[in-house]
Amino acid sequence: MTKNAAAYLSTRLRNGLQVRLKEIHTAPLISSWIWYRVGSRNELPGSTGISHWVEHMQFKGTPDHPGGILDRVVSRVGGVWNAFTWLDWTAYYETMPADRIDIALNLEADRMVNSLFETKEVESERTVIISERQGHENEPTFRLAEEVQAAAFRVNSYHHEVIGDMVDLRTISRDDLFNHYRKHYHPSNAVLAIAGDFTASSMLKQVREIFGGLPKVDPQNFEARPEPEQLGERCVDLHGPGETSYIKVAYHAPPARHEDFLPLAVLGSVLAGASSFNFFSGGISNRTSRLYRALVEGEIAASVQGGLAATIDPYLYTLHITMRPDRKPEHAIEIVDREIDRLLETKIKQEELKKAIKQARALFAYSSESVTNQGFWMGFSEMFADDSWFETYLDRLSQITPQQIREVAERYLRKTNRVLGIYRHAKDTNRG
Amino acid sequence: MAKVPFVFPMLDTKAIPGPESIKRWELANGITVLARENFASPSVVISGYLPVGSMLDEPGSAGCAHLTAQGLMRGTAQKSAQEIFESIESIGARISFSTGVHSTAFLAKGLVDDLELLLAVIEEVLSSASFPKVEIERLKAQQLTALAIRAQDTSAQAHLAFDELVYRDHPYRLPSDGYTESVQALMAADIRKFHRTHYRPSGMVLSIVGGVDADQALANTEKTLGAWSPGGTLKDFPLPPLKPLQKEVRRSIRLEGKQQSDLVVGAAGPSRFDPEYLSAALGNHILGRFGMMGRIGESVRETAGLAYYAYSTVSGGLGPGPWQIIAGINPVNEDRALNLIKAEIKRFVSAQVSKDEIRESQANIIGRLPLQLESNEGVAGAITHMERYQLGLDYYQRYPSLIAEISRDQILHIAQRFLDPERLAIAVAGPDRNE
Question: N or C terminus of chain B: which is more exposed, having fewer CB within 10 Å?
Fold first, then answer.
């Protein structure tokens, strides 16, 4: 937290819009984030990728903000903006000079209900999104991640990538998109988080004026189909061109609200290095993590990374390994298994735990520094828990014990609980 | 919608880093230290560079400067690689080095209490890295993997091909990270020799920004990097002149198993020292950055729907960096996208940009300055930039007026100087279109 962090205000408007405001007076900037509780988790086969496509269409205009004007009104005053679609949510942000934040708020209120979804624009965006997916498909790591994710979730809608399946990108219609928009874009399905150089009371007044008149729509609860327990290891074996093989190991993991979530994050830090939950904040190196030492210093792999995502439903803890061209993936997998056995056999040392916690604290501090990051955190934590998740993060972290770490290792890092994916380059395939 | 009344953003120039808030010192061993306090922040950033880049690689040794920089943290006379990384990672800090043609940049970040420790590690690795053989072999293997990945990356291949077309007899042709053959041939002894010959404090620039007292930052720097013995000034390596393209040149690279092509079109642009550089930057903003990526984005992505990304970039440094238009497209649309891009270049060099275009881009560039200078990284980068290109410590305070004063005619002039629609380099990497 910064020394100048001051008033925080949390409320809900009559139409259901949740509002989170935080005053930060370090720079003449305000960051406004609007988060919708809709992402690829809400999609069924036939309409995969629709949430992401709707996000793209939100830049194509309303009667009051026609496409082409939309981006100019933000850019011409020095604002930056963007949008993201993920498993559980879609978020839009603008970081603006403090005296022009009204532009962003008016724009977001307008496109929450008035976007046009013109057929011509839908068709032009179809090819843009197909091109985006083709760009992903150029990467063997995307192809591997997509297959591993699909193998991990047979029932739950985390099954498909956010970008969607190509067949659906070819067939989704203008009306499908518009109906998805109508169903999910309304005040009671959104959180507005604003951080920066304002006084909370006058900002709340402005928010009420701009968003208060939007019609209330009764929220529809969405329960994703729970993924049945996995009873044995699942394997994915891909083959493709190039000289590099990759491994992706994905373990089913608890959701962000679960009491095992933070202990598993700390365990991940010991195993493969610390990483930030904030998508927009860099991490630190992982050279002293157990798997880096075993795999990279052991001269089997070129790199290894671990990652745990904060989600509504149980998702995945993943290890991603880039092989050295002359080594066999099986060798790396043996080493991963050996290191996980070591975690199960011997409790981690107190100093390893202390280090992991210090790393998490530092990353949390870095990821909270700008007004854009503060706006991010306030809304992001609401998407899978509530704002207390963010506020109590450091306290909960400091209470984790080596015993808890061993327990979560036993519970989650089992072979029967994982998908093992390998992308083999052509030479490795030919070598058999 | 009603037309938004148009005014340039008014900035409080006193809040912008300038001579009143930046302290600058020169240490006896030739290091320049700059510091700016930001007590709102719990962290501190150290960034800067040494004038040691891949231009200094011997013929046939491309990648040597890069491997040397990557090997700095892999052991010193006093500590092993593990001990060095343990000291950094255990406090949640990071230090990284990266190499360009002219320089090796570094970036370190940690919590405020750890500033002196970070500076001590930077000093230790710069002055006494030992490049143990076993570590260098591991590093080489990692680098060879990275090069194998590069060989399959359509964007990287298009950029390499572009550099080969534009910078034929010029050091900018060679990739800083080298080639498989050159990296394979490098030995620990080559790396040690490169380090011994070229690494010294003279010419190093260091900016420290964060929740630390500036005088304390200087004291910490003097105690650590101030102790690095001078070792003389580096010889100057002037860039050879660049011969401009005489006709359109093309290269096409085909890779198996790809779905998308990367297209890079352009020529060499102005250096950062060019008196018209800011006109190029503003012009480029109109061409391929403003809003959803300027005229290029509007034409290739928004109207034709041909690409997920389409934009342009001008990146002048000490020498004539490239001015490029970049797009990721479906292979069947390569020709269509290229024609649209060429039409936009033609338009850009044939007629002045409109009054609205220049005013909107000026307003964007001026208005986003506080955002650019919000983070410690942003401020440290800006301070290093001012020092490197001798712009004066009041440069960002003058910047809004410098941008506001640029005319449409100046943009047309610089566009015509560097972009000739008949003499472009066109590089594309993607799947075989006959597949």
Answer: C
Instruction: Calculate mean pLDDT across residues B108-127.
Output: 97
* b/e code A224-254 from CB counts within 10 Å (16+ = b): beebeebeeebebebebebbbbbbbbbbbbb
Return the closest-CA partner of residue B59 out of B198, B161, B227, B190.
B190
In this prediction, residue B7 carries a pLDDT of 63
> What is the ipTM, given to two decimal places?
0.90
* B50 pLDDT higher than 80: yes
pLDDT at A429: 65
Instruction: Decide: helix, strand or coil at residue B431.
Output: coil
**Is pLDDT above 90 for A4?**
no
Report CB contact under 8 Å: B90, A72. Answer: no
State the alpha helices, DSSP H only, in B224-333.
277-288, 290-296
Q: Give the global pTM.
A: 0.93
Query: Count of A–B CB contacts within 8 Å?
Result: 209
Q: Which two tokens stand for residue B61?
A: 């040794």
Which of B291, B308, B375 shows the shortest C-beta gap to A75? B291
Compute the average pLDDT of residues A244-267.
Answer: 96
Q: Is B369 on the interface with A (CB under 8 A)?
A: yes
Q: Could you say which of A76, A132, A370 has the minimum Cβ distance to residue B374?
A: A370
- Chain B residues close to A137, C-beta within 8 Å: 258-260
- Condensed to tens digits (0 to 9), the pLDDT of residues A90-142 reads 999 999 999 999 999 999 999 999 999 999 999 999 999 999 999 999 999 99
Q: How many C-beta atoms lie closer than 10 Å to residue A298's C-beta? A: 15
Tell me which chain A residues have a C-beta less than 8 angstroms from the C-beta of B309.
135
Q: Residue B111: its chain A contacts at CB < 8 A?
A: 362, 365
Interface test with B, best of A127, A359, A367, A371 (most B CBs within 10 A): A127
Strand partners, B320: none
Closest by Cα among B348, B375, B350, B374 to B361: B348
